Amino acid sequence: KSFLNHTAYLSCFFANSQTADIKDLRVFWQKGTDEVVHEVYHGQEKHDNLSPKYINRTKVDMDKWTLQLFNAGIGDEGQYTCIIQRKVKGSPQVIHKSECLLHIIANYSQPEIALLHTGEEMAAHRPNNNLNLSCSSSGGYPEPKQMTWLISHENTTRSLMGHTDVSQDAATKLYNVTSKLNILVPANILTNISCLLHLGDQLGSLVSVPLGI
Q1: What are the φ/ψ torsions at residue 66 (nearest 5 degrees)?
Q2: Are residues 115 and 98 in the same domain?
Q3: How do residues 157-195 score in pLDDT, each as one tens digit?
Q4: How far apart are CA 205 and CA 209, in angstroms?
Q5: 181/153 Cα distance (integer angstroms)
Q6: Which residues 6+ apart lie within 8 Å of 185 measured at CB?
Q7: Domain check: are 98 and 16 in the same one?
Q8: 150 by DSSP, 3-state: which?
Q9: Would you give the DSSP letter of residue 111?
Q10: Cβ-proximal residues to 67 (8 Å cutoff; 6+ apart), any chain
Q11: pLDDT, tens only, 87-101
């Protein structure tokens, strides 16, 4: 995993790498089946075969057998393969091959709750308040799993699903998410309303500042 516009690290470490002499080897990383990302040929960096979008965006640390990919973008997501060849009796032989899957992460903004006015002003003394709420978060990646609402009265909390709309910016590929909820809030009881953006198993969740009614 790498954060958007940060450096991604693609490892090619293998057993007994400390004893390998880089001058005997051809080491290259490729994306998919045909895009060469970086190549080291007998100890020298070689640029002839590189895919244009990776030129001047990579640096290799042969002590750690790791490729650094600078300014990682959403278009860089995907499968990378590292291949190490050594010449045996004049013909190249693959002595190591490893694959890694690169995922890009961009942080969503903290979800924010807004009160949508329905034409009539909300009066605090009305016996019950019918609220139209929206909760929004923007500029994140990958696509969120879902957005839920947490409604708390005194010692009880319940979870509700609103109507959620997810859109993706055509240029940046980042996602914006908005959920709308219509809810009846009882009078004279403090109600705390929060909104929770679920980002997936490993990325956790983001929660809004609670709205107290």
Answers
A1: -130, 135
A2: no
A3: 999 998 999 999 999 999 999 999 998 888 788 999 999
A4: 13
A5: 17
A6: 128, 129, 130, 131, 191, 213
A7: yes
A8: strand
A9: P
A10: 9, 10, 11, 12, 29, 37, 38, 58, 59, 60, 61, 82
A11: 777 788 888 899 999
Check: CB of residue 20 under 8 Å from CB of residue 85: no
Unique residue bearing structure tokens 């019918």: 130
> Quick one: 114 and 208 in the same domain?
yes
Residue 197: CB atoms within 10 Å:
25
Look up tokens 């903290």; give the residue.
Answer: 110
Contact by Cβ (8 Å): 133, 193: yes
Cβ contacts of 123 within 8 Å, gap of 6 or more: none
| Residue 7 in tokens | 């450096």
Q: What is the rounded CA–CA span in Å between residue 187 and residue 180?
A: 21
- For residue range 104-156, what is the model confidence (pLDDT) as tens digits? 999 999 999 998 876 555 554 455 678 899 999 999 999 999 999 999 988 89
Domain with residue 20: its CATH number is: 2.60.40.10
> 81 and 133 in one domain?
no
CA distance 93 to 86: 5
Write out the residue range of the structural domain in which residue 68 sits. Answer: 2-105
Cβ-in-10-Å burial (0-12, 13-18, 19+) of 208 comes to buried
Task: Indicate whether 21 and 66 sit together in one domain.
Answer: yes
Same domain, 114 and 179: yes
| Domain termination site, one of 105, 129, 148 | 105
